[in-house]
Design brief:
Strand 7 (192-195), helix 6 and strand 8 form a beta-alpha-beta unit. 36% of the residues are buried. It is built from 8 helices and 11 strands. It has helices at 3-15, 18-25, 29-41, 59-81, 99-113, 203-213, 226-234, 281-301, and strands spanning 48-51, 54-57, 93-97, 119-123, 140-146, 158-172, 192-195, 218-222, 239-243, 255-258, 266-273. The strands form 2 sheets. Strands 3, 4, 5, 6, 7, 8, 9, 10 and 11 form a 9-stranded mixed sheet that branches. It is globular and about 70 Å long. The N and C termini lie far apart (52 Å). Helices cover 37% and strands 22% of the residues. It folds into 3 domains: 3-81, Winged helix-like DNA-binding domain superfamily/Winged helix DNA-binding domain (Arc Repressor Mutant, subunit A, Orthogonal Bundle); 93-164 and 267-301, 3-Layer(aba) Sandwich (D-Maltodextrin-Binding Protein, domain 2); 165-266, D-Maltodextrin-Binding Protein, domain 2 (3-Layer(aba) Sandwich). By secondary structure, the protein is an alpha/beta fold.
Length: 302
């Protein structure tokens, strides 16, 4: 099999459509389709299936795409071994992070590396299932998941834990509950809430809280960006769940964070990468620096 054909199959799995693959690779959709057809001709089981107007992978296609990932990793390591790749101090590394992780980690990461290697940073807040697909465009993807979320797909990405952070309740400083050091879930059932949009990881936290207290919560606002959420809380319009470590800088000037005593809430922040991306020395250097700055952020949050 041609490794280039396997790469196209993996791109289709990550990007979700032939058109998206074509746009990312700067080729025509027909060229992508032709190459996939060449691969299919060499495989006795269907690799793709059409769902409406979109071509998606079958279970066999997903398995072959996963095998292609290992092939690409081996080829990348082989090229690096003979010096085909740029030196680790020169190759730019593309890093994506969801918003609060970018707020907490991007600045310290830039200072830690001091330009070596150069970074290309991006923010991307997506649903839990979509984080692995971001590795198609970024060497390292900082993603988050709740304890009950499914693990990241090990056949597609390498997962490096960065931190496990508590999720606290953000309150206006003037709120009566802000005088308490710790809260109980029952204290919060009558409050208006800011939640993230449906499908995003932290939406499940409020669902979990509602199940714990046995009644639905009153969602007044849906905002994904924690800096905006902090302003809504600061104005006294609602309360919210906010991460203790990555959103620590926002809990100032009239916003306080309080833990729940009877319902511990945590989320995991991980770095995701395609195996072949980590064959680059530069990507491994940035990953090590990310682990360092994440450890410092955890220490600072207490």
């Amino acid at each position: 099999m041609d490794p280039a054909h396997l790469r196209l199959l993996r791109e289709l799995g990550d990007r979700g459509s032939v058109a998206a693959v074509a746009a990312a690779l700067h080729v025509s959709a027909s060229a992508v389709s032709q190459q996939l057809a060449h691969l299919q001709a060499r495989v006795p089981v269907p690799l793709t299936v059409r769902r409406g107007r979109v071509l998606t992978l079958t279970a066999a296609g997903e398995a072959l795409a996963a095998a292609g990932t290992r092939v690409e990793e081996a080829l990348t390591a082989a090229r690096e071994a003979v010096g085909d790749f740029l030196d680790g101090d020169e190759r730019p590394v593309r890093v994506s992070a969801f918003h609060s992780a970018g707020l907490a980690l991007f600045g310290p990461l830039l200072r830690e590396l001091d330009g070596i290697p150069p970074l290309h940073l991006a923010d991307a807040d997506v649903a839990h299932r979509d984080f692995p697909g971001l590795t198609a465009d970024h060497d390292l993807v900082i993603a988050h998941r709740l304890a009950h979320d499914p693990p990241w797909p090990q056949d597609r990405v390498v997962t490096t834990p960065l931190l496990t952070e508590a999720l606290d309740i953000a309150l206006p400083a003037a709120h009566p509950l802000a005088a308490r050091e710790r809260l109980a879930a029952a204290d919060l059932v009558e409050q208006p809430w800011v939640s993230v949009h449906e499908g995003f990881p932290l939406a499940g936290v409020l669902d979990h809280l509602a199940a714990h207290v046995g009644r639905p919560l009153r969602i007044a606002h849906r905002i994904n960006e924690f800096s905006v959420t902090a302003e809504v809380v600061r104005a006294g319009a609602a309360i919210a769940v906010m991460p203790r470590t990555t959103a620590l800088a926002l809990a100032v000037d009239g916003v306080v964070l309080r833990p729940l005593d009877d319902l511990p809430l945590v989320r995991h922040v991980d770095a995701l990468a395609r195996p072949d991306a980590l064959a680059y020395a530069a990507a491994r250097l940035v990953l090590d620096a990310l682990r360092t700055v994440a450890s410092r952020a955890t220490d600072a949050a207490g």
